[in-house]
Amino acid sequence: AAEGVAALRGTPPLLLLVAFPSADGTVRHVPGKLRACAAAGVDAAPLVLDSVDGTARAIAAMEEAIALRRPDAVFVQVPAPPDLDEAAILRAIPPAADVDIMTPACFRSYMSGASDLPPVTISAALELLNHHDISVDGLAGVVAAGESPFALMFAEALRRRGASVSLLPPAAPAWADALSAAELVVAAVGRS
Fold first, then answer.
1. H or E, element range at 106
2. For the chain, how are helix, strand and coil distributed in percent, rounded to 5?
3. What are 137-190's pLDDT values in tens digits?
4. DSSP state of 98
5. Residue 149 · residue 102 · CB < 8 Å
6. Strands, sheet with 14-19, edge to edge from the N-terminal-most edge strand
7. What are the distances in angstroms from CA 102 to CA 17, 46, 93, 173, 179?
8. 101: which residues sit within 8 A by CB, 6+ positions away?
9. Using CA atoms, how far apart are residues 39 and 117, in angstroms rounded to an integer?
10. Vertex 6: Cα angle to 131 and 78 (nearest 5)
11. How large is the angle between the packed helices 149-159 and 104-112, nearest 10 degrees?
C-alpha cells in the first residue's frame, strides 16, 4: 500500500497530526496513527499543542505549522483539553485540508448532501460493514453520543444507507431500554 500511494503522486502525501497531551502528560493514539500512516505510505508530522499556552497560541502554532509544512491534510485529535476552545481550533483547519470533516464548511457540505465522503472514522466503520457484507437498510438504531458534528455525521451516514437512526445522549432517560431496543448501536460516548 505504501508504494502505491507514493506512485500515484510521485511523493507521499503529508498529514499534519495535531494532538494534545492528556492530564498525565501522555499523548494518546498518536503513536498508532503514525504507524498506520507509515504503513500506508503517508508522511505524518505530529504537532503536540500544550493547553497551558491557551487557544490563541495553539491556533497560531497550528497555522505556523500549516504554512511551513504545507500538509495535504490536517487531522486534529479531539477532544481538546477543556481549557482550550476546541471549536475555534477546528475552525482554523483549512477546509481543503480537512481530512476528518471538522470545519463548519465541510460539516455543512456533508450534511447537505453536497459531499458524499464522511469523516475517516465513519468511513472506516462503513468499510467494516462492507467487508462483512452487513446491510443496515431498514434497521432502527441509535448513535449513543452527545450531540456533536461527529455524532450527527455518523447518524447521517447510516441514514444514507437506509437505517432509521437517532442520537441517544448518555444522560437520556431510559438509556438502557433505548439501547436494548435498538437493532443497530454505534457507541461514540468516548468512555467505557
1. helix 104-112
2. 45, 15, 40
3. 999 999 998 888 889 999 999 999 999 999 988 888 888 898 899 999 998 876
4. B
5. yes
6. 43-48, 14-19, 73-76
7. 13, 18, 8, 29, 27
8. 107, 110, 115, 117, 118, 119, 149, 153
9. 23
10. 60
11. 20
Using CA atoms, how far apart are residues 14 and 12, in angstroms rounded to an integer?
A: 6
Share of residues in the chain with pLDDT > 70 (%): 94
The residue to which cell 463548519 is assigned: 104
**Regarding beta strands 14-19 and 164-168, do their DSSP bridges make them parallel or antiparallel, or are they unpaired?**
unpaired
pTM for the full predicted model: 0.78
Grid coordinates representing 111 are 450534511
Cell numbers placing 66: 500549516
User: Which residue's C-alpha cell is 443497530?
Assistant: 184
